[in-house]
Every structure is written in C-alpha cells, then in structure tokens.
Amino acid sequence: EPEVRAAAVANAVKIVQAVSESVGHEMILRTVLQLVDDASTHVRLALGTCLSSLAPAIGKDLTARELLPVLLTLLRDEETDVRLAVLNSMDPVQETIGVKLLGENILPAVLSLTTDAKWRVRLGVVSALPKLAAHLASEKFTPEILDLCTKMLVDPVFNIRRATIDFLAEVIDISRRGGSADAASWVLQRLKSMSEAATYEPRLTAALALESLCKHSAAEGGILEMSTMRSQVIPTLVKLSRDPIPNVRIAVS
C-alpha cells in the first residue's frame, strides 16, 4: 500500500542511523531509492521530503553516488508538491557533499525550475537561493544567479518579483565579498532600464528594488558605496517619484 511505503521512507533515517555498517547503509538506501518511480504521489512526496535528511548519516560518497541522482530526478517530478518538497529540504545535502558537487549538480537543476509552469515552484526556487548562496563561491554563484534575476524580476506573479527584490542585496553582497562589483553594476543597470519601461509594473518593481537596496546601504559597510548611491540610485528614485502612476510614487516615498 502507498501509505506503508511512504511510512517506510519516513522512517529510513532512523533505520540508517541504527545500522552502523556502510554496506547496510547502501542496501537500505538502494531499497528506498527504488521508490523514485512509484506511481503514488504520496510516496514520491515522502521521498522528496525525507531523502535529504539521510545525507549526514550515509556520508559524502553515498550521497553523491546514490542519493543525488534521485533528488535530481525528483526535482523534475510531474507533481508540483514533490518538486517543492525537494527544494525546501536540501540543506543536509548541501552540508554533506560540499561546494563543488553542489555547484555542478544541484544548482543547474534548481535554476532549470525558473521556467516551471507552476508559480509556487518558481517561488520555491527564489526562496531556496539564499541557502544555496551560503555554500557557493561568488565566482560560481553570481553569474548564474544574475541570469535568474533577469527572469524573476519580470515574473507575472508579484510574490516572485518581491522575493527576487529581497534577494538582490544578497547577490550584490556575495559578489562584493568575492572582490567584484559586477553584480552591483548589473543590478543597477537592470533597474534603471526597468525604471524607463513603458508599462508601470517594471517601474514599480524598480522602485521597490531600489528602496530595498537603499535600506541595505544606509549603515556603515552597506552593500553600495555612497558615491554609487548618489550617482546611480538617487537620480533614478527622484525620476520615479514623479511617475504618473500613484503606486510607483508611493513605493518611492
């Protein structure tokens, strides 16, 4: 029965922890992983929710060899809730396999979901990025994330645009800590372009994003230099404060 198989998956962590031998770990893991093609969404959802928590117990090698391919398969599952479950539970895998494998495997799979038809999945991608950012070096993380932000800032769903706005400061900070100002330059150029759009939604997004960046730059050691604020941010905000659409003007005030 699907309920029994789902319960077995949920208890897999306890079972693996109770078996100390690596051979036992591998046997149990392979038995559980066979359920990746289970016809029951309930079972695959249990896999998406619980599998990542096995990583610390089975170690890096087994995680990379056996667990990671199944997680990547589940990220492409036809059911929205299964894909979201994997996105929301990847922390233990990130901590176990390290930066290199994470960047080579998980990040491309996650970024591929930015075009998912379900808006909840796209929102899940943006929500997962701060956790991924903590594990990836700036040279690997920043270029790909900037491409993602290009798409997400114009997503038709406001919640996704809002989540992307909240994440922009972190992208800039990652790039800055890596010794580069490229992300800040890209973000400000993109927002300036959006502030000049013919339709009001990109202008509203630009106003909200610039306000957010101002808040992250107000204190000493902020993400943007004061010279950058004066030359690039403030002039754009002044222009948006005169926008014909009230919501845009309110966002600036």
Name the descriptors.
PP2A_Regulatory_Subunit_A, Leucine-rich Repeat Variant, 253 residues, mainly alpha, Phosphatase 2A Regulatory Subunit A helical domain-containing protein, repeat, 2AA_helical, ARM-like
Describe this structure in words.
The protein is an all-alpha fold and 253 residues long. It has 2 domains: 1-117, Leucine-rich Repeat Variant (Alpha Horseshoe), CATH 1.25.10; 137-253, Leucine-rich Repeat Variant (Alpha Horseshoe), CATH 1.25.10. Helices cover 75% and strands 0% of the residues. It has 14 helices and no strands. Helix 1 (2-10) runs parallel beside helix 4 (41-50). The protein is elongated and about 65 Å long. The termini are far apart.
In short:
It comes from Pinguiococcus pyrenoidosus. HEAT repeats lie at residues 28-66, 67-105, 106-144, 233-253. The chain has 253 residues and is mostly helical.
Helical fraction equals over 70%
The major β-sheet equals:
none
Helix-strand topology string: HHHHHHHHHHHHHH
What would the average pLDDT be, to the nearest integer? 85
- What's the structural domain tally? 2
What is the radius of gyration computed over CA atoms, rounded to a whole number of angstroms? 21 Å
- Based on the structure given, which CATH architecture of the largest domain is correct? Alpha Horseshoe
- CATH fold title of the largest domain: Leucine-rich Repeat Variant
Q: Count up the helices.
A: 14
Derived structural class: mainly alpha
Extract low-pLDDT stretches: none
**Span between N and C termini?**
58 Å
Beta-strand portion reads: under 5%
How many distinct beta strands? 0
CATH superfamily of the largest domain: Leucine-rich Repeat Variant
Gross geometry: elongated
CATH hierarchy, class of the largest domain: Mainly Alpha
GO molecular function, one term: protein phosphatase regulator activity
Domain Phosphatase 2A Regulatory Subunit A helical: 25-196
Keywords: Repeat
Protein name: Phosphatase 2A Regulatory Subunit A helical domain-containing protein
